[in-house]
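Per reviewer request, we include the raw input and output of the structure prediction for the construct analysed in the revised manuscript.
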Amino acid sequence: MNRFISQKKTLSRYIIKKYLSFLIVILLLFSLIRNISALLFFGSDNLNFSRILDAETLITPDYENTDISGLADINGWIEILDEKNRVIYTKGNVLDPHSEYTQDELLEMNALGGFLGKTSLTVGGVLNLTYKGSVQDTPEYLATYTVFERGGQTLTGLVRFPAEKVSARFSFLNPGGELRTAMYQTGAALFAACTAVFLFFLLRYARAIRTHVAAPNETLVNGLREITSGNYGTRIRLNAEYEYREIEDSFNLLAEELMTATKERERLNRERRQLLSNIAHDLKTPITTLQGYAKALSDHVVKSPEQQEEYLSAIYRKSVHMTDLVNKLLEYSRLENDTYHLHLEDTEFTEFVRTVIIDQYGAFENRRIELETEIPDSEICLSIDRTEIRRVLLNLLGNCIAHNPPGTSARAVVRSDGHFCTFGLWDNGTPIPEELRDSVFEPFVCGDASRQSGNGSGLGLSICRKVAEKHGGTIVLKEGPDGYKGFVLSLPCI
C-alpha cells in the first residue's frame, strides 16, 4: 500500500522552499551588512544631518508649523517663494536676506541638494561641490529647495544654511588614526560573523539536498543494479518523503513481482521437465509390452489360439491406454494454451450434476460403493463449458470408484452462497498418501503402484484444475464431515 498523506507534498516544492529560504537569508545578511556599514562609515549623525538639510524632507505645505530646531542649530533658516520667486515667508535667523531670487540663483544654491538626493556616499571621500556659471569658488551660503502646491498656488520652499557648516560636518567621511583602525576592525568582525552565518545556512541547505535527493537516488541506483543482476530479493528503504515514498513502494512491489514470476517460471520449467520425463516413462512401458507381444505373435512363438487371443487382448488394452494418455496430454496442452477459449453456456447446475451422477450409478453399484447425494431442489444457474465440466465431474467420480475398496461410503453435495456454487465429493475409503496431498494436482502425480499397473495417467486432476481455473473457479483437496476426505469444485454463479 502506498504511503500517502492527505495533502500531497512534492520534491520540487520542497527544493523550491529550501532555495527561497536560503535566498531570503542571503538577502537579509546583505541588507544587514549594508545598513551596519552605513552606520559605521557614515554615522547616524551624518544621516540625520542630511535630513535637516533636505528641503523635500523638511518643508511641507504646512510650513508655518515646520520644526526647524535642527536647522537652527547650524544657523539655517527656511524661505517660501511664490510663483515669481518672491519671498513671502521666512522662519529662523535669516543671515542672507533676499526679497526675490532668479532662476540661476536657485540652481546654483541647490548644488548640495543634488548631492543629498544621492545614495552613493563613499568612504574616504570629501564633499566637493561644483557650480555652473560665474560664481565664487567657495559660496558663503548654500540651499536646497522643493516645489509644492498650497491654495491653488505653486510655491517653492528653500532651506538655507552657511556653507562652512556643511564642510565641517562631512569631513567625518575621511577618518584617520585610531578611528579608522576601529572601523576596519569592526567591519572585519561584522564580515566574519556574516560569513559564518552564510556558511551555516549553506551547509544546512547542502545537507537537506543530500538527505532528500542525493541519498535516495544513490540507494535507488544501487537497488536497480541488484535487480538487473538477477537479485530479485532486493528491497530498498529510501528514508525519504515526497515522491520517493511512491518510488520505494513501486520498486519493492516490482521486486516482489519479479521474484514471484521467477519462482513461477522455475516451477513451470520443473513441471515441463517432469512432464516430459513422465510422458517418456508412461509411453515406454506399454510400447515395450506391445513390442514384446507383437514380436511373439510375429515369430509364431505363441502356438495355442487361447494364448494368441490373450496376447491380442493385451495389445488392445495397452493401445487403448496409450490412446487415452495421448488424448489427455492433448487436452492438458490445449488447456495450458492461453489462446484456448471455453464454449460457455448458461446451465442449470443441479440438474446437470444429477444427470452425470445417474450415468455413473451402475459403476458405483458394481464396485459396491454407496453414494449419497445432497442436491438442492432450487435452481442454480452457472455459465459453464458443459463438455469440460462434465469431464471434471466424471474424473472425480471415476477416481472415487477406482481408488476405493468395496464397502466405501461416498457423498456428493451441491451448495451455493449466491456468489459461488460448490460440488463436493467425499468418501471414507482409501486416504490419499500424505506425501502426495500437496502435489496431487500436478501432472502425472498418481503414485508408483498405479503407474506401474498401467491404470490412470496422472493427468486427470491436473486437467480438472485447469478447467476450474479457466472458469474462474478452484478445485481443492479438503476434509469433509465425519472425517471424510474428498475434493471440492467451486465455480462462480451468474
